[in-house]
Amino acid sequence: MFYFFILLLVASAQAKFYTDCGSKLASVQNVGVSGCAEDATTCILKRNTNVTISIDFTPTVSISSVETEAGEKQAYKATLPVLKSYPKVTVDVKWELKNDAGDDLVCVLIPAHIK
């Protein structure tokens, strides 16, 4: 019982608020969402505000459109509005970065609650 409890604590300490949903051509090192703690289970997105998402990843292939070599760490950042008209719901936000051929470089699911 004691070992199980320690294992559970270690697993909880290493938990991330996002899950990889099929990053085929890159490895994701980190995902950040403004206002969302790294140990959160759900990100709270407040309506009528802006949210910034950042993703650190390393592609396993070269990307010609942005002149990136395989193995070269990249930092992606985008800011988007959480509109007042959005309903107050709990959702999984799916964020994908694709290459020129439409293949997933990065795919992450972020559990969120719009309030």
UniProtKB/TrEMBL annotation:
Keywords: Signal. Pfam families: E1_DerP2_DerF2 (PF02221). InterPro entries: Ig_E-set (IPR014756), ML_dom (IPR003172). Residues 18-112 form the MD-2-related lipid-recognition domain. Residues 1-15 form the signal peptide. The keyword Ubl conjugation does not apply. SUPFAM superfamilies: E set domains (SSF81296). This is MD-2-related lipid-recognition domain-containing protein.
